[in-house]
Give the backbone structure.
Amino acid sequence: MGSTRLPPSEPGLSAACARAVSLIGAPTDAGAGVPGCRMGPEALRVAGLQSALQRYGCDVADRGDIKGPVAFPDAPPVKGYRNADEITTWCQLVGQGVRSELQQGRLPILMGGDHSLAIGSISAVAAHCRSQGKILRVLWFDAHADFNTAATSPSGNLHGMPLAVLCGLGPDALVGLSGQVPALSHTQVRQIGVRSVDPVEKQLLRSKQIVVHDMRYVDEVGMREVMTLALADVTSETHLHVSFDVDCLDPADAPGVGTPVRGGPSYREAQLCMEMIADTGALSSLDIVELNPALDTCNQSAELCVDLVESLFGKSTLLRWHR
Protein backbone atom coordinates (compact mmCIF):
# COMPACT_ATOMS: atom_id res chain seq x y z
CA MET A 1 0.00 0.00 0.00
CA GLY A 2 1.34 3.44 -0.89
CA SER A 3 2.23 5.69 2.00
CA THR A 4 0.56 9.01 2.58
CA ARG A 5 1.13 11.83 5.02
CA LEU A 6 -1.74 14.27 5.26
CA PRO A 7 -1.66 17.76 6.75
CA PRO A 8 -4.70 18.85 8.79
CA SER A 9 -6.44 20.49 5.83
CA GLU A 10 -5.36 18.45 2.81
CA PRO A 11 -7.51 19.80 -0.08
CA GLY A 12 -7.06 16.73 -2.26
CA LEU A 13 -5.60 18.68 -5.19
CA SER A 14 -1.96 18.94 -6.21
CA ALA A 15 -0.24 22.29 -6.64
CA ALA A 16 -0.76 21.99 -10.39
CA CYS A 17 -4.53 22.15 -9.89
CA ALA A 18 -6.87 25.10 -9.49
CA ARG A 19 -5.20 26.77 -12.45
CA ALA A 20 -6.48 28.90 -15.28
CA VAL A 21 -5.84 26.74 -18.34
CA SER A 22 -6.21 27.60 -22.03
CA LEU A 23 -6.55 25.07 -24.83
CA ILE A 24 -5.04 26.12 -28.18
CA GLY A 25 -5.63 23.92 -31.22
CA ALA A 26 -3.11 23.88 -34.05
CA PRO A 27 -4.52 21.54 -36.73
CA THR A 28 -1.61 21.02 -39.10
CA ASP A 29 0.53 18.11 -40.22
CA ALA A 30 2.79 20.26 -42.40
CA GLY A 31 5.88 18.99 -40.60
CA ALA A 32 4.88 15.34 -40.43
CA GLY A 33 5.69 12.39 -42.61
CA VAL A 34 2.13 11.11 -42.98
CA PRO A 35 -1.17 13.02 -42.92
CA GLY A 36 -3.63 12.86 -40.07
CA CYS A 37 -2.35 14.69 -37.00
CA ARG A 38 -4.14 17.84 -38.15
CA MET A 39 -7.18 16.08 -36.62
CA GLY A 40 -5.46 15.79 -33.23
CA PRO A 41 -7.06 18.83 -31.55
CA GLU A 42 -10.58 17.66 -32.27
CA ALA A 43 -9.76 14.12 -31.11
CA LEU A 44 -8.60 15.51 -27.75
CA ARG A 45 -11.80 17.51 -27.45
CA VAL A 46 -13.91 14.45 -28.24
CA ALA A 47 -11.94 12.49 -25.63
CA GLY A 48 -13.04 15.03 -23.01
CA LEU A 49 -9.89 17.03 -22.29
CA GLN A 50 -11.74 20.15 -21.16
CA SER A 51 -14.13 18.38 -18.81
CA ALA A 52 -11.28 16.28 -17.40
CA LEU A 53 -9.35 19.42 -16.46
CA GLN A 54 -12.46 20.99 -14.97
CA ARG A 55 -12.91 17.96 -12.72
CA TYR A 56 -9.53 18.80 -11.19
CA GLY A 57 -10.44 22.36 -10.35
CA CYS A 58 -9.19 24.15 -13.46
CA ASP A 59 -10.79 27.17 -15.05
CA VAL A 60 -10.59 26.02 -18.68
CA ALA A 61 -10.97 28.22 -21.75
CA ASP A 62 -10.90 26.59 -25.18
CA ARG A 63 -9.49 29.22 -27.53
CA GLY A 64 -10.45 27.16 -30.58
CA ASP A 65 -8.17 26.35 -33.49
CA ILE A 66 -5.51 28.60 -35.00
CA LYS A 67 -6.16 29.33 -38.67
CA GLY A 68 -2.89 28.74 -40.46
CA PRO A 69 -1.79 27.96 -44.02
CA VAL A 70 -2.70 24.68 -45.65
CA ALA A 71 0.25 22.39 -46.35
CA PHE A 72 0.64 18.68 -46.97
CA PRO A 73 3.23 16.15 -45.77
CA ASP A 74 3.94 14.95 -49.31
CA ALA A 75 5.20 18.35 -50.53
CA PRO A 76 8.78 18.18 -51.88
CA PRO A 77 11.59 19.51 -49.66
CA VAL A 78 13.12 22.88 -50.57
CA LYS A 79 16.73 23.39 -49.44
CA GLY A 80 16.34 20.40 -47.15
CA TYR A 81 13.10 21.47 -45.47
CA ARG A 82 9.56 20.43 -46.29
CA ASN A 83 6.90 23.18 -45.93
CA ALA A 84 9.31 25.51 -44.12
CA ASP A 85 7.41 28.72 -44.96
CA GLU A 86 4.07 27.31 -43.88
CA ILE A 87 5.54 25.88 -40.67
CA THR A 88 7.16 29.22 -39.88
CA THR A 89 3.76 30.89 -40.12
CA TRP A 90 2.16 28.21 -37.96
CA CYS A 91 4.90 28.59 -35.33
CA GLN A 92 4.54 32.35 -35.32
CA LEU A 93 0.79 32.04 -34.74
CA VAL A 94 1.27 29.39 -32.05
CA GLY A 95 3.87 31.56 -30.35
CA GLN A 96 1.53 34.54 -30.31
CA GLY A 97 -1.25 32.47 -28.79
CA VAL A 98 0.97 30.88 -26.14
CA ARG A 99 2.61 34.18 -25.17
CA SER A 100 -0.80 35.86 -24.82
CA GLU A 101 -2.04 33.20 -22.43
CA LEU A 102 1.16 33.30 -20.37
CA GLN A 103 0.89 37.06 -20.05
CA GLN A 104 -2.60 36.59 -18.64
CA GLY A 105 -1.28 34.19 -16.04
CA ARG A 106 -2.87 31.18 -17.72
CA LEU A 107 -1.36 27.78 -18.45
CA PRO A 108 -1.43 27.15 -22.23
CA ILE A 109 -1.96 23.64 -23.58
CA LEU A 110 -1.04 23.38 -27.24
CA MET A 111 -3.05 20.67 -28.98
CA GLY A 112 -1.24 19.60 -32.13
CA GLY A 113 -0.67 18.99 -34.88
CA ASP A 114 2.86 17.74 -35.43
CA HIS A 115 5.88 18.35 -33.22
CA SER A 116 7.33 21.13 -35.37
CA LEU A 117 4.75 23.34 -33.61
CA ALA A 118 6.83 23.11 -30.44
CA ILE A 119 9.27 25.54 -32.07
CA GLY A 120 6.54 28.14 -31.74
CA SER A 121 5.29 27.22 -28.29
CA ILE A 122 8.69 26.81 -26.64
CA SER A 123 10.11 29.93 -28.32
CA ALA A 124 7.24 31.87 -26.75
CA VAL A 125 7.77 30.20 -23.38
CA ALA A 126 11.52 30.95 -23.50
CA ALA A 127 10.89 34.61 -24.30
CA HIS A 128 8.32 34.84 -21.51
CA CYS A 129 10.70 33.29 -18.99
CA ARG A 130 13.45 35.73 -19.93
CA SER A 131 11.10 38.67 -19.49
CA GLN A 132 9.96 37.39 -16.08
CA GLY A 133 13.37 36.27 -14.84
CA LYS A 134 12.11 32.67 -14.55
CA ILE A 135 14.21 29.52 -14.86
CA LEU A 136 12.97 27.34 -17.71
CA ARG A 137 13.10 23.55 -17.78
CA VAL A 138 11.79 21.60 -20.80
CA LEU A 139 10.90 17.92 -20.51
CA TRP A 140 10.78 16.43 -24.00
CA PHE A 141 8.89 13.12 -24.10
CA ASP A 142 9.46 11.44 -27.46
CA ALA A 143 10.44 8.19 -29.15
CA HIS A 144 12.71 10.26 -31.41
CA ALA A 145 15.46 12.74 -30.62
CA ASP A 146 14.05 15.41 -32.98
CA PHE A 147 17.58 16.73 -33.48
CA ASN A 148 18.02 16.43 -37.21
CA THR A 149 18.96 19.27 -39.55
CA ALA A 150 18.52 19.79 -43.28
CA ALA A 151 21.92 18.16 -43.77
CA THR A 152 21.15 15.07 -41.70
CA SER A 153 17.42 14.47 -42.16
CA PRO A 154 16.55 11.64 -44.54
CA SER A 155 13.11 13.17 -45.20
CA GLY A 156 13.23 16.95 -44.72
CA ASN A 157 10.28 16.69 -42.32
CA LEU A 158 10.52 19.43 -39.73
CA HIS A 159 8.78 17.38 -37.06
CA GLY A 160 12.11 15.56 -36.80
CA MET A 161 14.02 18.80 -36.21
CA PRO A 162 12.25 21.00 -33.60
CA LEU A 163 14.69 20.52 -30.73
CA ALA A 164 17.64 21.17 -33.04
CA VAL A 165 15.94 24.38 -34.23
CA LEU A 166 15.31 25.50 -30.64
CA CYS A 167 19.02 24.88 -29.95
CA GLY A 168 19.99 27.10 -32.89
CA LEU A 169 20.30 24.67 -35.80
CA GLY A 170 17.84 25.43 -38.59
CA PRO A 171 16.28 28.10 -40.81
CA ASP A 172 16.89 31.66 -39.62
CA ALA A 173 13.19 32.46 -39.51
CA LEU A 174 12.57 29.61 -37.06
CA VAL A 175 15.67 29.73 -34.87
CA GLY A 176 15.02 33.41 -34.15
CA LEU A 177 11.37 33.16 -33.09
CA SER A 178 12.11 33.68 -29.39
CA GLY A 179 14.11 36.84 -30.02
CA GLN A 180 17.31 35.09 -29.00
CA VAL A 181 19.47 32.45 -30.71
CA PRO A 182 19.45 29.80 -29.50
CA ALA A 183 16.07 29.82 -27.81
CA LEU A 184 17.24 27.03 -25.48
CA SER A 185 20.54 25.96 -23.99
CA HIS A 186 21.39 22.31 -23.41
CA THR A 187 21.09 22.87 -19.65
CA GLN A 188 17.37 23.54 -19.97
CA VAL A 189 16.36 20.31 -21.75
CA ARG A 190 15.81 16.73 -20.61
CA GLN A 191 14.73 14.11 -23.15
CA ILE A 192 12.82 11.07 -21.92
CA GLY A 193 11.78 7.85 -23.70
CA VAL A 194 14.00 8.18 -26.79
CA ARG A 195 14.64 4.97 -28.71
CA SER A 196 15.01 5.99 -32.38
CA VAL A 197 17.96 8.21 -33.32
CA ASP A 198 19.55 8.66 -36.73
CA PRO A 199 23.35 8.06 -36.89
CA VAL A 200 24.46 11.68 -37.43
CA GLU A 201 21.81 12.86 -34.99
CA LYS A 202 23.67 10.98 -32.26
CA GLN A 203 26.77 13.06 -32.91
CA LEU A 204 24.79 16.31 -32.87
CA LEU A 205 23.17 15.42 -29.56
CA ARG A 206 26.59 14.73 -28.06
CA SER A 207 28.12 17.91 -29.48
CA LYS A 208 25.29 20.00 -27.99
CA GLN A 209 25.46 18.09 -24.68
CA ILE A 210 21.74 17.34 -24.66
CA VAL A 211 20.70 15.18 -21.69
CA VAL A 212 18.91 12.15 -23.12
CA HIS A 213 17.32 9.54 -20.87
CA ASP A 214 16.74 6.90 -23.52
CA MET A 215 14.76 3.71 -23.05
CA ARG A 216 17.88 1.67 -22.34
CA TYR A 217 18.58 4.00 -19.41
CA VAL A 218 14.96 3.70 -18.28
CA ASP A 219 15.37 -0.08 -18.38
CA GLU A 220 18.64 0.07 -16.43
CA VAL A 221 17.65 2.41 -13.59
CA GLY A 222 13.85 2.61 -13.69
CA MET A 223 11.50 5.45 -14.54
CA ARG A 224 11.41 6.78 -10.99
CA GLU A 225 15.16 7.41 -11.04
CA VAL A 226 14.95 8.95 -14.52
CA MET A 227 12.28 11.40 -13.40
CA THR A 228 14.10 12.15 -10.17
CA LEU A 229 17.14 13.16 -12.23
CA ALA A 230 15.09 15.12 -14.76
CA LEU A 231 13.37 17.08 -11.99
CA ALA A 232 16.31 17.28 -9.57
CA ASP A 233 16.66 21.06 -9.49
CA VAL A 234 13.06 21.98 -10.35
CA THR A 235 11.22 24.02 -7.73
CA SER A 236 7.80 25.65 -7.60
CA GLU A 237 9.54 28.76 -8.96
CA THR A 238 10.69 26.97 -12.13
CA HIS A 239 8.68 27.30 -15.33
CA LEU A 240 8.31 23.66 -16.28
CA HIS A 241 7.28 23.05 -19.89
CA VAL A 242 6.28 19.54 -20.97
CA SER A 243 6.47 18.77 -24.68
CA PHE A 244 4.66 15.46 -25.02
CA ASP A 245 4.86 13.58 -28.31
CA VAL A 246 2.27 10.80 -28.22
CA ASP A 247 4.70 8.44 -29.96
CA CYS A 248 6.76 8.43 -26.76
CA LEU A 249 4.23 5.87 -25.55
CA ASP A 250 4.42 2.26 -26.62
CA PRO A 251 2.31 1.80 -29.76
CA ALA A 252 0.53 -1.12 -28.09
CA ASP A 253 -1.09 1.48 -25.83
CA ALA A 254 -1.16 4.43 -28.25
CA PRO A 255 -1.44 3.27 -31.87
CA GLY A 256 -2.66 6.64 -33.15
CA VAL A 257 0.70 8.09 -34.24
CA GLY A 258 2.44 8.47 -37.58
CA THR A 259 5.88 7.24 -36.48
CA PRO A 260 5.39 4.41 -33.95
CA VAL A 261 8.42 2.78 -32.32
CA ARG A 262 8.12 -0.35 -30.24
CA GLY A 263 9.48 -0.50 -26.71
CA GLY A 264 8.18 2.72 -25.20
CA PRO A 265 7.21 3.46 -21.60
CA SER A 266 4.43 1.34 -20.19
CA TYR A 267 1.12 2.81 -19.11
CA ARG A 268 2.21 2.87 -15.46
CA GLU A 269 5.62 4.34 -16.28
CA ALA A 270 3.92 7.16 -18.21
CA GLN A 271 1.52 7.75 -15.32
CA LEU A 272 4.42 7.92 -12.89
CA CYS A 273 6.09 10.58 -15.06
CA MET A 274 2.98 12.72 -14.98
CA GLU A 275 2.40 12.24 -11.26
CA MET A 276 5.96 13.21 -10.40
CA ILE A 277 5.67 16.32 -12.57
CA ALA A 278 2.43 17.24 -10.78
CA ASP A 279 4.20 16.84 -7.44
CA THR A 280 6.63 19.65 -8.31
CA GLY A 281 3.85 22.23 -8.63
CA ALA A 282 5.91 23.77 -11.43
CA LEU A 283 3.99 22.74 -14.56
CA SER A 284 3.39 25.97 -16.47
CA SER A 285 2.84 25.01 -20.14
CA LEU A 286 2.21 21.86 -22.16
CA ASP A 287 2.34 20.55 -25.74
CA ILE A 288 0.39 17.46 -26.81
CA VAL A 289 1.51 16.63 -30.34
CA GLU A 290 1.63 13.94 -33.05
CA LEU A 291 -1.75 12.43 -32.15
CA ASN A 292 -3.03 10.98 -35.42
CA PRO A 293 -6.71 9.93 -35.22
CA ALA A 294 -6.57 8.55 -38.77
CA LEU A 295 -4.30 5.78 -37.46
CA ASP A 296 -5.97 5.32 -34.08
CA THR A 297 -8.37 2.66 -32.82
CA CYS A 298 -11.65 4.09 -31.48
CA ASN A 299 -9.85 7.23 -30.25
CA GLN A 300 -7.98 5.20 -27.63
CA SER A 301 -4.74 7.21 -27.99
CA ALA A 302 -6.57 10.50 -27.41
CA GLU A 303 -8.34 9.01 -24.39
CA LEU A 304 -4.98 7.86 -23.01
CA CYS A 305 -3.59 11.38 -23.47
CA VAL A 306 -6.51 12.78 -21.46
CA ASP A 307 -5.88 10.14 -18.79
CA LEU A 308 -2.25 11.25 -18.54
CA VAL A 309 -3.18 14.93 -18.44
CA GLU A 310 -5.47 14.16 -15.50
CA SER A 311 -2.41 12.86 -13.66
CA LEU A 312 -0.52 16.03 -14.54
CA PHE A 313 -3.29 17.99 -12.87
CA GLY A 314 -3.78 16.03 -9.69
CA LYS A 315 -5.18 12.53 -10.23
CA SER A 316 -3.51 10.16 -7.80
CA THR A 317 -4.39 6.92 -6.06
CA LEU A 318 -4.01 8.53 -2.64
CA LEU A 319 -3.83 12.04 -1.25
CA ARG A 320 -0.16 12.79 -0.82
CA TRP A 321 1.52 15.57 1.10
CA HIS A 322 4.93 16.53 -0.26
CA ARG A 323 7.04 18.69 2.03
